[in-house]
Amino acid sequence: MLNYPASWTVSTDKEYLELTSPDGSVTGHVSPKSLNGPDAAWMGRHVTQYKSNPAVVMSEIVGDHVASYSGYNSAANPTQDSMGWGLSQVNASGLVSMAAADSDDELWAYFEQAGVNKSGKALNDKKAAQVAQKAVHSKNGATVEAILQSVQLVEDLSGETPPGGHPEILDQTYTSPDGAFTMNHPSTWTVRTDQGYLEVTSKTGQTVGRIATTDVRPLRDDWLTSPRYMMPGEDTPLTERLGSRVSTYSAYHRDADTPDEDAILFGLTQVNSSGLVAFGEANQRRELSAEFIYKPINTTGRHLTDDEVRTALTGHVNTHQDVPAVQAMLQSIRVN
């Protein structure tokens, strides 16, 4: 199972998952080798500028070191050079054992961006490094890394769809009373608007989102100073609309007094805005607060260590069934 943005095109008609980026430049698949295995050309590819990051969740599941990686693939014909991303277990040549899912198969997760060499000639190491760095740090590159980090092995669920695999359909739209913003949300979530702002609660009852401008719903006194461990997410369409980067985030909020009140947060943040989005004309600037809260997350009765916080946040983001819908709702927000 894995998480992926609703903006990516999904195909499963080949009996395995295939994903394509919104601009069509990156395609990838995640599948057992028995359904879609690498060919000799892929196994013999010439990879340079190899970079890797620990895939923490998969490493814990597999019981061995698993990493997400990126690399520049040099072809005999330079016009066929490509950038590649994937998952690999130690000494597994780009594959991961599926023994943890009671299978003797291997998992092949690989994404590719073609057309990266437009020079018509072979690139030297310096040029290849520049191309690779640009691809890795692009929006598509960051998204592929997030997708790979979310991949997990699950045991056979006897035909049931594992939670978190697909966002719920956002089939209803909320518009604030003053027309300042809109957000799409699933009809399966409970909606409350009698407080003057939008409040949505998941089917599980564990996640509550509140979306409002700060003049309608002022921030708590401790909101800007509360301790958080944050992970960046993806850019949203508001970036283009406002001309300033707006992205999603997830965070672990530590309650200073009561560990039982620790929570996982999801929201929108603008550059240097600490979790708010500013919009409107210069003389009429307003700020939007969009925050989803999940708790309880800490049932130990004590404050978690930094490592435990990171593990709790990563595990929740990658596995909880409410998360895909939350991410999709945040991506759907528009301002006027």
Measured by DSSP, the beta-strand proportion falls in 25-35%
Helix content: 10-25%
Give the strand tally. Answer: 19
Q: What is the average of the pLDDT values?
A: 86
Structure overview:
The chain is of the alpha+beta class. It has two domains: 142 residues, no CATH class; 164 residues, no CATH class. Helices cover 19% and strands 33% of the residues. Strand 2 and strand 3 form a beta hairpin. The protein starts with 8 loop residues before the first strand and ends with a strand.
SSE layout:
Blueprint: E1 9-11, E2 17-20, E3 26-32, H1 40-43, E4 46-54, H2 56-62, E5 66-74, E6 82-89, E7 96-97, E8 106-114, H3 125-136, H4 139-150, E9 172-175, E10 181-185, E11 190-192, E12 198-201, E13 207-213, E14 228-235, H5 238-242, E15 246-253, E16 263-270, E17 277-279, E18 286-294, H6 306-319, H7 323-332, E19 334-335
Antiparallel strand pairs: 1-2, 2-3, 3-8, 4-5, 5-6, 6-8, 7-8, 9-10, 10-19, 11-12, 12-13, 13-18, 14-15, 15-16, 16-18, 17-18
Question: How would you describe this structure in keywords?
Answer:
336 residues; alpha+beta; 8-stranded antiparallel sheet; 33% strand
In short:
By secondary structure, the chain is α+β, with helices and mostly antiparallel strands. The protein has helices at 40-43, 56-62, 125-136, 139-150, 238-242, 306-319, 323-332; strands at residues 9-11, 17-20, 26-32, 46-54, 66-74, 82-89, 96-97, 106-114, 172-175, 181-185, 190-192, 198-201, 207-213, 228-235, 246-253, 263-270, 277-279, 286-294, 334-335. The chain starts with 8 loop residues before the first strand and ends with a strand.
